[in-house]
From TrEMBL:
This is DNA-directed DNA polymerase. One of its GO terms (molecular function) is nucleic acid binding. GO terms for biological process: DNA replication. Residues 47-314 form the Bacterial DNA polymerase III alpha subunit NTPase domain. It holds the Pfam family tRNA_anti-codon.
Length: 823
């Protein structure tokens, strides 16, 4: 530097002086809480105690001594740890959301184990009734602060954030940035592009890297070690070696920034005192430039700035419940309070046991449907256990769990004292909390010590585990147990803690599952309308269309009539149309029609609100804003059937452009004051004049429905062939979840064909999707089968298929052995 600026020695000296003065030390590890205003004469501690006591009196009809002791115990720990303000802040915005009618989850994570959280309205799950220990949530010996995660209705989460921002100040509240890192495949492709390689070259290498599992991303090193073809390319191809070596250096580097899905920070003073800020890339929201690992003490194991971080998540199922309750009030004038459900309705458990669980939280996957049918849950604890068991690891215990429920005589306990702890899960330790209770009961651990044991085993700290085992055996011995019995019980804990689930979380989510099942069973039309409305608001794409299609198929199964869109009756979303004492029908919303956007719908609804229903197609064209409702939108409305009341679709399609032109010209004349004495009257102007044409064929009309709504509404193409198909198949498509590894004969209409060429051998194969009246399934047609059946796979044709049912990542498919067209 001195050599470059030799003529400015003073400037060089000044840069050193400035650098020496710029010595900022950021204090880490201290929890920073904003102020919470309490009534005059109160402290955060006294006000929390008062609020919790009032809430507990409302929650419980009788103030038992057990409740008072538990509340005092929790409040004392919260006070000593300095967490009273935290609980008041959370309770404030949760209860505000409830008062606004915003759907709030009953709990998430371990917070449902707190009686203080339950009494102050933060959670809705009774920790006493469900035997949830407080220490799993807040261990007084744990240095990190408590962490209460919350679910809100996904469409109204922003209202909660707005409330928090207004209360604490927009310069003190912000959402958190998150960095997407460069993963193995992306690193290969990016480096290949930078090196000027033809696209196909790095793409071939990237495709040799298998995808990782959730939480376990595949790395380049691991792929080179485990994938023979990739390993050979690395060793034998100099350019590939260079590509991979360079990509290794970039793997894990931040690639892009976005807004964290849930994280919000609240500060005691301006956020700029603690973190740099920026605007999000595609919007105006202010977000932090530090990510959660820099800000949150829990995420960074104490080495962070320490701002209060709240995880406020949006959950679609809460939106469904919120809207279903609103629909029931509108159609039946019944007020529903889900917080007082008894959780013992046999009809609800019968519904879940049927496996017909579309729309029921946590129960929609093929695997969960199968588990529901096999287990046949009869009580709330069964649903909670289903949520906990249906994960990699615990899944291996599902057959034992089902067998024990079916035949309780087969349940064996290592020691009689384990029965009260393990009875609700049929002798299997499903939850981490059960392992804590075993240590407490059998070895005399305090619940604080039991939580430490849980963490030590979970993290596989060998030295700590060795000491804990000695302590455990000693504790068991002092209670009269033999060393061998103590070792066996410790082995049981060791075995289950590794994959044991957080009971507070599974019970909280089981409660949402029960609530959604209750609403579906008691108010099917209102519930399915809410499901369709929620799914139609999802991000456009195959996943959204698939979910709406599944909901439509479920409506058919439930014999709920679904009506086509109608320009005079449809609103933005799906809605219920019901006469008095009628169970109701569901009307398609305009937002579900392709090419019909928000601006167009707003214009249509505004015109309808102002002057009533459209009297004709011409009247519609005259009254809407044609800069928003353009020709493409009008054509889509016609093809989707929304204009059927005005005439045949064939005639409307032939005439609509000319009518738009005529209206345009008429409007221009009026604007210019060119009014003739012989001008026709307003009533004559809105009369439609269409060319006389034969209507489109049924097949063409159905094709338009599928093209512009994504689904068949008025009729299914299989209607005329259903009897023939039923005689030939062994299973309908909605029956396949319980037939994994079985050979079946199925049939349906081909809705999608995706042909690919295999990497090895360059042979053609296909992935085909078929629908029947009950559902849809993906078919995998491998090269040998594809070679002899390639002319079978034609969109909109009906096929008969023989194959084996398989399941991967909770998705069903049929591996095709043979297929033919059904003519």
């Amino acid at each position: 530097m001195k050599g470059l600026f030799i003529q400015y020695p003073e400037a060089i000296e000044n840069t050193v002086k400035i650098a020496e003065k710029c010595n900022v030390e950021i204090e880490l590890g201290k929890w920073i809480l904003p102020q919470f205003e309490v009534p005059e004469g109160e402290t955060a501690e006294t006000f929390l105690r008062k609020t919790a006591l009032e809430g507990m009196r409302q929650r419980y009809s009788e103030m038992r001594e057990e409740l008072k002791k538990r509340l005092d115990y929790e409040l004392n720990i919260i006070t000593v740890k300095g967490y009273s303000t935290y609980f008041l802040i959370v309770a404030d915005f949760v209860n505000w959301a409830k008062r606004q009618g915003i759907g709030v989850g009953p709990g998430r994570g371990s917070a449902a184990g707190s009686l203080v959280a339950y009494s102050t309205g933060i959670t809705e799950l009774d920790p006493i009734r469900h035997s949830l220990p407080f220490e799993r949530f807040l261990n007084p010996d744990r240095p990190s602060p408590p962490d209460i995660d919350l679910d809100f209705a996904d469409t109204r989460r922003d209202e909660v954030i707005a409330y928090v921002t207004e209360k604490y100040g927009n310069d003190r509240v912000a959402q958190i940035i998150t960095f997407g890192t460069m993963e193995a495949r992306a690193a290969i492709r990016d480096v290949g592009r930078a090196l000027g390689m033809p696209y196909a070259q790095p793409d071939r290498i990237a495709k040799l890297i298998p995808p990782g599992a959730q939480g376990f991303p595949m790395t380049i090193d691991k792929a080179v070690q485990t994938q023979p073809e990739l390993s050979q390319a690395y060793q034998n191809e100099p350019e590939t070696k260079k590509l991979i070596d360079q990509a290794r250096k970039l793997e894990g580097v931040a690639r892009h920034a976005s807004v964290h899905a849930a994280g919000v920070v609240i500060s005691d003073k301006k956020l700029t005192e603690y973190t740099p800020l920026q605007r999000e890339t595609k919007g105006q929201r202010i977000i932090t430039q530090y990510d959660m690992y820099c800000l949150d003490l829990n995420a960074a194991e104490g080495k962070a700035v320490g701002l209060l971080k709240m995880d406020l998540l949006g959950l679609r199922n809460l939106t469904i419940l919120e809207n279903a309750i609103r629909f029931v009030k509108a159609t039946k004038n019944i007020e529903i309070d889900l917080s007082v459900l008894a959780l013992n309705d046999p009809a609800v458990y019968t519904l879940i046991s049927s496996g017909e669980t579309t729309g029921i939280f946590q129960m929609e996957s093929a695997g969960m449907r199968r588990l529901a049918r096999d287990l046949k849950p009869t009580k709330f604890t069964d649903i909670s256990a289903m949520v906990a068991l249906f994960r990699p690891g615990p899944m291996e215990w599902i057959p034992t769990f089902i067998e024990a429920k079916e035949n309780p005589r087969k349940i064996k306990y290592l020691h009689p004292d384990l029965k009260p702890i393990l009875a609700e899960t049929y002798g299997i330790a499903v939850y981490q909390e059960q392992c804590m209770q075993i240590a407490n009961k059998m070895a005399g651990y305090s619940m604080v010590e039991a939580d430490k044991l849980r963490m030590a085993i979970g993290k596989k700290k060998r030295e700590v585990m060795k000491k804990e085992k000695e302590k455990f055996i000693k504790g068991c011995s002092s209670r009269g147990l033999s060393v061998s019995m103590a070792e066996n019980i410790f082995s049981l804990i060791e075995k289950f803690v590794g994959y044991g689930f957080n009971k507070a979380h599974s019970a909280s989510y089981a409660l949402i599952a029960y609530q959604t099942a209750y609403m579906k069973q008691k108010y099917p039309v209102e519930f399915m309308t809410a499901v369709l409305a929620a799914e139609s608001r999802g991000a456009s794409g195959p996943s959204r269309d698939e979910k709406i299609a599944q909901a439509i198929l479920e409506c058919r199964r439930m014999k709920i009539n679904l009506m086509s869109p109608n320009i005079n009756k449809s609103d933005v979303e799906f809605k219920i149309e019901a006469e008095k004492d009628d169970k109701g029908e569901i009307r398609f919303g305009m937002s579900a029609i392709k090419n019909v956007g928000t601006a167009a719908i707003d214009s249509i609804l505004a015109a309808r609100e102002k002057d009533g229903d459209f009297k004709s197609f011409t009247d519609f064209i005259k009254r809407v804003d044609l800069s928003k409702v353009n020709r493409k939108t009008v054509e889509s409305l016609i093809k989707a059937g929304a204009m059927d009341q005005f005439g045949k679709r064939a005639s409307l399609l032939a005439a609509f452009s000319e009518i738009i032109e005529r209206v345009h010209k008429g409007q221009e004349k009026k604007d210019q004051g060119q009014v003739s004495l012989f001008e026709v009257s307003e009533s004559e102007e809105i009369i439609d004049v269409f060319p006389e044409m034969e209507e489109l064929s049924k097949e063409e009309l159905l094709l338009f429905e599928k093209q512009f709504l994504g689904f068949y509404i008025t009729e299914h193409p299989l209607t005329n062939q259903i009897n023939d198909l039923e005689k030939r198949v062994s299973h309908r498509l909605n029956m396949l979840a319980s037939e994994v590894k079985s050979t079946v004969v199925i049939g349906g209409i081909v809705t999608q064909v995706k042909k690919i060429t295999t990497r090895q051998g360059g042979q053609e194969m296909a992935f085909v999707k078929i629908d029947d009246f009950t559902g849809s399934i993906e078919l995998v047609v491998f090269p040998t089968v594809y070679e002899r059946t390639k002319f079978t796979w034609v969109t909109d044709k009906v096929v008969l298929v023989k194959g084996k049912v398989s399941e991967k990542d909770e998705r069903l498919a049929v591996l095709v052995d043979d297929a033919k067209l059904l003519v």
